[in-house]
Amino acid sequence: MNIKLQTISLDPKVQRYEKVSDTVDETVLINTPGSNFYEKKMSKNKVWNFICGYLTPVQLLVYSLVGFTVIWCIYGAAYYTYNLSNHYSIMSCTFSFLGSWDDDSNPIGWYWFTIGMCSSFFIEMPIIMYVYQRVKHINKKIALCGNIFWVLGVCAQFLVGCFPSSSTIIFGTTKFRDIHNPTATVTFSALLVGAPCYAALVGYDRPTSCKKIGKGNILNHRYTDICIGIVISIMIVALIILGLWQIVYPIMYAKDPTIGSNWSAAMNTIWSFPLWENVIIITLYLYLIIFPFSLPHRADGLAPKQRLSTTFKKVTLDQIYLKSEISKTWYPILSRSDVNVRNAADFLENLADCEEVEGLVSFRAIQTLSKLADMINSQQNAEETKAVLKEFTKSSYELWTWHSTIKKCIK
């Protein structure tokens, strides 16, 4: 591979840089978030990009608030019409009761439930994809697994709306409820499996060697940990209580057979399945509203384009020789002479400490660059140095972040 060096020199007195040469492969920039080429590409196929979750924070905020407000207004209409005929209580009525046109449920406004469920599918899909686009760089396999389960869950949710929980026969002896119950089970199961996958990503993103609280690779753990922790905790509590009921009920029934069935005996108590079903549904909706906002704006963990704090301008860098040969990945080639790599590591640490760009630079990158500095200073084997360079560029976007940030801050 032909290497062309790009020299960036900095005069600490005037805080400016000079770009001696610049070699950029346009093909890679087209696929590199943060570049003008990428922005032009994303301006095309807007509908498809929207479905795939390529939203800005402002778009996400407006979309989430409007979308979920509409959904819950629809569910509110279903709740209102339900109470015109019967009394809805989360202690004894499952969420699906709102969509049943049976006389003991919601014969007046059952269709509001169907509209709400089907609308949820279209509103939630871009948000789920938004989350996936921003966590897949942590661990693509885990992210893909979580995304598949969540997509499966919202697809099954659409079918739940199409087949309400009613005793009306569709064909033969098959009732609407016979299709509704399995799809509702798939919806809950998929979402309950998908949530721990994202919890695993949050844990995977936090380096065990990181001494800086709240600093991970990509995520802002001060927010993601709280959000995921609440969701997982509620799910665990619900599953434990519902599981314990399967042990408690036989004991209670043996003492008093008049308590009724497993279902009826739990009504209006802490063991009630409808209670925990409603709690989990509300929790998952809140999760879909809050969790995406704890993620970085850029799909690769980059912060939004903005003028960085003047604090960065005080950072002293004597001379940095940074290569810019770009293929499918970024490979930085640092000159072995007249290079203060340690200052570069300090610069990255200062970036990582700034709240404006939290998640911009990973602690792992800082550690690796420091290790690289030691190897260069101690004249280590060239092949070993090259291996560390490759380790530093495992995330191709991270070098782009560092490189472009230097050019933005130091002017």
Describe the structure in your own words.
The protein is mainly alpha-helical and 411 residues long. It has 2 domains: 5-44 and 308-409, no CATH class; 47-294. The protein is built from 14 helices and 7 strands. The chain has helices at 26-30, 36-42, 46-51, 57-85, 110-135, 140-162, 176-205, 221-255, 262-266, 273-290, 341-353, 363-377, 382-392, 396-409; strands at residues 5-11, 16-19, 169-171, 174-175, 319-323, 325-326, 330-331. The strands form 3 sheets. A 3-stranded antiparallel β-sheet has the order 2-1-5, with no helix packed on it. Strand 6 (325-326) and strand 7 form a beta hairpin. The model is unreliable at 1-41, 208-216, 298-346, 351-363 and 393-411 (pLDDT under 50).
Radius of gyration: 27 Å
Low-confidence stretches: 1-41, 208-216, 298-346, 351-363, 393-411
Number of helices: 14
Query: What profile does the largest beta sheet have?
Result: 3 strands, antiparallel
User: Which class of secondary structure composition applies to the elements?
Assistant: mainly alpha
Per the principal axes of the C-alpha atoms, what is the gross shape? globular
Determine the N-to-C terminus distance: 32 Å
Overall average pLDDT: 67
How many structural domains does the protein architecture include?
2
Transmembrane segments: 60-82, 110-132, 144-166, 186-205, 226-253, 273-295
Keywords: Membrane, Transmembrane, Transmembrane helix
